[in-house]
Design a protein that fits this description.
Elements lengths: L9 H21 L6 H14 L3 E5 L2 H11 L7 E5 L5 H8 L3 E5 L10 H7 L4 E5 L10 H11 L2 E5 L7 E3 L5 E3 L6 E5 L13 E5 L2 H10 L4 E3 L2 E2 L10 H10 L3 H18 L6 E2 L22 E5 L4 H10 L29 H9 E4 L7 H16 L1
Parallel strand pairs: 2-3, 2-4, 4-5, 5-8
Antiparallel strand pairs: 1-9, 6-7, 8-9, 10-11, 12-13, 13-14
Helix pairs in contact: 1-8, 2-8, 3-4, 3-7, 9-12, 10-12
The structure holds pyridoxal-5'-phosphate.
């Protein structure tokens, strides 16, 4: 059996090798390292793929979130609601901008932000909601947009994990994840579903005025050379990363399909298992089917409900099966983000998930032998 890896990017590289190597050589020959033609071309190609008016490339997904918040003109003391169960980047940039992060609980089956908890957290000071489309599927955007409209809030989608996923609204309208709220952000970190060979990120919006503001902010607040109208940052996607992304973007739907296929096989293997709860897909099909495109499985995350998650992790270590525990500590209990406003009773779901979740190897190169080995090892241990 081929050695199992959590993320295996070599197969993808082999399939685009010629194009990538040629593009990188051209960039080196022409010294167009920054703001070269590949960056502009990628921007347009991604706009077309997503069906969004503006893509603003930047240096990474964390910057993308920060710049989005800067562009919306949020001010110190403004409250921004986001999920307790996510990667720290989301809450980090809120705090860095001296906005007030307000963490709320998530749903037990999708792991996405809980709408009732968001509603309870809204105050006079609330200015924005940041749903994180965790593990590859959208949060309940219909409900979030409804709340946002009612309370006059911005919606900033952290789409670092769900690029390529679709969201079908109640009215039947189908949109790409990250293009539904006022502004969306993504990351092109190598292990993300659309990853480059270093760091990269982008911001999406359909708002012309906001796009103009954001393009200045990424470039030191310059709208005219050496005229600095607002405080900006330096956040660029470099030409080499753009060239890699240009080679990969036409294959993104294929990558997503390969991930879904692996998820479908995992799901089938765990069917009927009492203590192994499979990830729930909620939008579009209500379950995994061959045509569903609502979940792109950045992670395939199970819940182990009989207290054996930690033992399973150790068993995987011994058997050289990689896994991830995303996330082991809720953000509201991270030292940097402690706040008297939080009450443990407000986080029953996150506090349970951290002991139950385990993410299995997930990438575009998994074969049946590997999947069978992983699922058999897991089932035997959990029921043993
Ligand atoms: C990866 C990730 C980010 C940050 O992206 P970087 O490119 O690493 O800065 C932000 N939010 C979520 C949910 C992520 O998974």
């Amino acid at each position: 059996m081929k050695k199992i890896q959590m993320v295996d990017l070599n197969g993808q590289y082999q399939a685009i090798k010629e194009q990538v190597n040629t593009s990188l050589a051209t960039i080196m020959e022409t010294s167009a390292f920054i703001n070269g033609p590949d960056v502009k071309a990628f921007q347009q190609e991604l706009e077309n793929y997503l069906g969004v008016k503006h893509v603003i490339p930047c240096a990474n997904g964390t910057d993308a979130l920060q710049i989005a918040m800067m562009g919306l003109g949020l001010e110190p003391g403004d409250e921004v609601i986001t999920a307790d169960f996510t990667f720290a980047a989301t809450v980090e940039v809120i705090a860095l901008l001296q906005l007030t992060p307000v963490l709320v609980d998530v749903e037990p089956d999708t792991f996405n932000i809980d709408i009732a908890a968001v509603e309870r957290a809204i105050t006079q000071k609330t200015k924005a909601i940041v749903p994180v489309h965790l593990f590859g599927q959208c949060a309940n955007m219909d409900a979030i947009l409804e709340l946002a409209e009612k309370h006059n809030l911005y919606v900033i989608e952290d789409n670092a994990q769900a690029i390529g996923a679709n969201y079908t609204s109640k009215n039947g309208k189908k949109q790409k994840a990250g293009t539904i709220g006022h502004v969306g952000s993504t990351s092109f970190f190598p292990s993300k579903n659309l990853g480059c060979y270093g760091d990269g990120g982008a911001i999406f919006t359909n708002d012309d005025e906001l796009a103009y503001t954001l393009r200045g902010i990424v470039n030191h607040g310059m709208y005219k050379r050496y005229h600095h109208d607002v405080i900006g940052v330096n956040s660029r996607l470099d030409s080499m990363q753009a060239a890699v992304l240009r080679a990969k973007l036409p294959k993104l739907d294929g990558y997503c399909a390969a991930r879904r296929e692996a998820a479908r096989k995992y799901n089938k293997a765990f069917e009927g298992q009492e203590h192994i709860i499979r990830p729930k897909t909620v939008n579009g099909c209500g379950g995994i089917c061959d045509t569903c495109d609502c979940h792109v499985f950045h992670q395939y995350t199970l819940k182990i409900t009989n207290g054996k998650r930690d033992g399973l992790a150790e068993h995987f270590n011994q058997n050289e099966i990689p896994y991830g525990v995303y996330y082991p500590i809720p953000l509201h209990r991270q030292k940097a983000y402690l706040d008297d406003r939080y009450d443990e009773a407000d986080f029953p779901v996150t506090n349970q998930l951290i002991h139950q979740v385990i993410s299995l190897p997930m990438h575009t190169e998994l074969d049946d032998e590997q999947i069978n080995h992983i699922t058999a090892t897991l089932i035997e241990y959990v029921n043993g």
